[in-house]
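> example.struct
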């Protein structure tokens, strides 16, 4: 197979495909709960028809080297299965430690950070099995060393699902991998907020993101984005940097498949809410990392305004999300304001099961973000049948359609009025829930299988039909959209 020129978009029909999962390995080496980027990646890659496709291979990079090793698809698929998730995370941690032995010392010193030191010790002392056993809660099965890709193999495409900044120096290695295996490079962008407003990101991350993006862009043969909003961001930044523009496609973002809850779901939800000291339909929920972009200061201002309103019974507010960059102001207000201290709960490590119960049990959810590439919490709230109040910022309206209630991101009074309406008016809540249920019942939104199938079709693969068997319906909800359509090879194909 002839090699593709960098940035040419050339890619043969069909063939084998590499998926770079380095970001997932790095994330779960240290954390147990996903952010939005990881949740999207594992939902797409965990679709069995894609994960176990004979022409698909998952690979991850060993930091401090150009070595990419193979990741068992069962590990990635297991991240989406409740009783397999802990084991999958433990196996990823073992792999990450083992991969340290593949690093080149001089390059590792340039790329590594202090957080990598424990894994460096685990890798070189061959004590990974003990760490995996501790994380999994049982002694692990015997495991061989990571298997490296054969440099003589050829692949049609190399796909990244958005976390190209996971390691310093990662993009350089990704480019060499592309050229070595003569693959077209397809990459997903979730948002470019780190470039638009650097102050919302950790200085190390923002600098790393900007540098890696500028290095990656000339080599990409097909861009994927999560929304029309991100498509505009990407086109603007490519033009500002005078970087080459390649075909760009909007990915359909998957919604949870409609399903009848198990008979014990209400009982399990009630048990979780009781344990957390919450009452069903009696609290407000915010899901997301506590960081400047999420605009939680405005939410706390709105809650304070509501507390001062005559006749307004304050509802507890639950913040479900990890502690992020520059969260000190939120922590300080929760600690020093008597009303907020009494009514706001911060759950930093909610499991998927707990998060589902929190969505179903909430009276309403809120997402007042200054910027989002898509708005996954809005989508998840609606999928659970719970009304959502969100800012009309970024790609959020593409996720919430006309089912969410939108307010201005910088207006605490607007947000307070919208929350107060739902807090005091039971009829408004019932009406909103009924409208959501009716719309979801009569219109099929994309599933994660649809997302995976769209991605597969771009690289010349055909997936088996979704096992959920839900019929196709025709609601406009971020359906596949292609810009700059060209000829017929898969990476440039129009869906």
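> example.seq
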């Amino acid at each position: 197979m002839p090699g593709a020129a960098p940035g040419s978009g050339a890619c043969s029909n069909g063939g084998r495909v590499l998926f770079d999962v380095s970001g997932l390995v790095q994330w779960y080496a240290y954390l147990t709960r996903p952010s939005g980027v990881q949740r999207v990646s594992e939902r797409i890659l965990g679709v069995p028809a894609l994960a176990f496709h004979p022409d698909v291979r998952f690979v991850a990079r060993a930091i401090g080297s150009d070595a990419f090793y193979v990741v068992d698809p069962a590990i990635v698929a297991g991240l989406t299965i409740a009783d397999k998730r802990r084991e999958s995370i433990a196996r990823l941690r073992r792999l990450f430690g083992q991969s340290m032995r593949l690093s080149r010392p001089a390059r590792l010193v340039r790329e590594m950070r202090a957080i990598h030191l424990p894994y460096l010790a685990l890798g070189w002392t061959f004590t990974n099995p003990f760490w995996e056993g501790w994380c999994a809660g049982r002694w692990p099965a015997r495991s061989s060393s990571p298997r490296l890709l054969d440099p003589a193999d050829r692949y049609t495409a190399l796909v990244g699902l958005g976390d190209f900044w996971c390691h310093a120096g990662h993009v350089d290695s990704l480019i060499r991998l592309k050229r070595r295996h003569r693959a077209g490079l397809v990459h997903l962008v979730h948002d470019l907020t780190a470039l638009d407003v650097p102050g919302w990101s950790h200085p190390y991350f923002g600098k790393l993101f900007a540098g890696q993006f500028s290095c990656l862009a000339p080599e990409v043969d097909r861009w994927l984005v999560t929304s029309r909003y991100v498509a505009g961001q990407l086109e603007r930044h490519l033009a500002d940097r005078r970087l080459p523009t390649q075909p760009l496609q909007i990915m359909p973002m998957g919604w949870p498949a409609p399903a009848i809850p198990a008979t014990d779901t209400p009982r399990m939800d009630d048990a979780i809410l009781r344990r957390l000291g919450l009452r069903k339909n009696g609290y407000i929920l915010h899901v997301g990392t506590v960081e400047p972009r999420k605009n939680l200061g405005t939410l706390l201002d709105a809650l304070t305004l509501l507390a001062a309103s005559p006749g307004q019974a304050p509802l507890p507010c639950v913040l479900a999300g990890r502690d992020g960059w520059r969260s000190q102001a939120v922590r300080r207000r929760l600690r020093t304001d008597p009303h907020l201290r009494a009514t706001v709960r911060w759950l930093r490590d909610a499991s998927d099961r707990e998060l589902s119960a929190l969505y179903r049990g909430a009276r309403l959810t809120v997402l007042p973000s200054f910027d989002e590439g898509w708005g996954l919490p809005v989508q998840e709230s609606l999928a659970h049948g719970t009304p959502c109040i969100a800012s009309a910022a970024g790609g959020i309206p593409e996720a919430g359609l006309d089912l969410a209630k939108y307010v201005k991101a910088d207006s605490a009074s607007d947000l307070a009025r919208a929350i107060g309406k739902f807090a005091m008016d039971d009829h408004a809540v019932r009406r909103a829930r009924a409208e959501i249920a009716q719309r979801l019942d009569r219109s099929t939104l994309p599933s994660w299988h649809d997302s995976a199938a769209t991605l597969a079709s771009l690289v010349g693969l055909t997936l088996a039909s979704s096992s959920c068997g839900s019929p196709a319906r025709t609601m406009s909800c971020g359906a596949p959209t292609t810009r700059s359509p060209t000829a017929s090879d898969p990476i440039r194909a129009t869906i």
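> remarks
The chain has a mean pLDDT of 88.
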